[in-house]
């Protein structure tokens, strides 16, 4: 035996029959409800988009009327002038900074040159001092041997 499915039969005319099952009805209602829900969501999205567009348009109009009424155009011009002056000051500062850097480098080179010269002169002086010290000791020893010369210390 076959399982019996509940069928709902609607007869339109004796000669023609239109069969409506629960599955078909359920499918039709699901499609209809889903379509209505999607249509509602679509309408809500479009409405929200339109309201956002209107708010943006209103804000632009308010900003335009506010800037004309309050003299913001003059303030913008003054701001541009101040910006140009600031850029000029920045360029001048960069020039002064480069000048200082070159001055510092020149002084550093001069300082290092003087240090090298002093170190060179000092090393020459030490060599000369060592030579003279050796000569002095030789003279002292010679005088000590020859004339009984005593070194005071």
> How many strands appear in the DSSP assignment?
2
What is the helix content? Answer: over 70%
The H/E string reads: EEHH
Number of helices: 2
Shape: elongated
* Proportion of residues in β-strands: 5-15%
- Please identify the structural class as seen in this structure: mainly alpha
Average pLDDT: 82
Low-confidence stretches: 8-13
Largest sheet: 2 strands, antiparallel
Give the N-terminus to C-terminus distance in angstroms. Answer: 143 Å
| Strand order in the sheet with the most strands | 1-2
User: Radius of gyration in whole Å, from Cα?
Assistant: 54 Å
How are the SSEs placed, and which strands pair?
Elements: E1 7-10, E2 18-21, H1 22-70, H2 72-147
Antiparallel strand pairs: 1-2
What does this protein look like?
The protein is mainly alpha-helical and 153 residues long. Strands 1-2 form a two-stranded antiparallel sheet. Helices cover 82% and strands 5% of the residues. The termini are far apart.
Q: What would a concise description of this structure say?
A:
By secondary structure, the protein is mainly α. It is 82% helix and 5% strand. The chain has a two-stranded antiparallel sheet with strand order 1-2.
Labels describing this entry:
mainly alpha; 82% helix; 5% strand
């Amino acid at each position: 035996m076959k399982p019996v499915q509940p069928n709902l039969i609607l007869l339109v005319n004796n000669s023609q029959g239109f069969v409506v099952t629960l599955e078909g009805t359920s499918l039709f209602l699901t499609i209809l409800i889903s379509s209505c829900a999607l249509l509602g969501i679509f309408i809500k999205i479009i409405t929200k988009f339109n309201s956002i567009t209107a708010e943006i348009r209103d804000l632009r109009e308010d900003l335009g009327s506010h800037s004309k009424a309050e003299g913001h155009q003059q303030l913008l011009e003054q701001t541009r002038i101040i910006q140009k002056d600031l850029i000029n000051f920045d360029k001048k500062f960069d020039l002064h900074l480069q000048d200082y850097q070159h001055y510092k480098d020149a002084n550093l080179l001069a300082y290092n040159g003087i240090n090298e010269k002093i170190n060179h002169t000092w090393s020459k002086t030490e060599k000369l001092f060592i030579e003279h010290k050796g000569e002095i000791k030789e003279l002292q020893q010679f005088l000590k041997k020859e004339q009984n010369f005593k070194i005071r210390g």
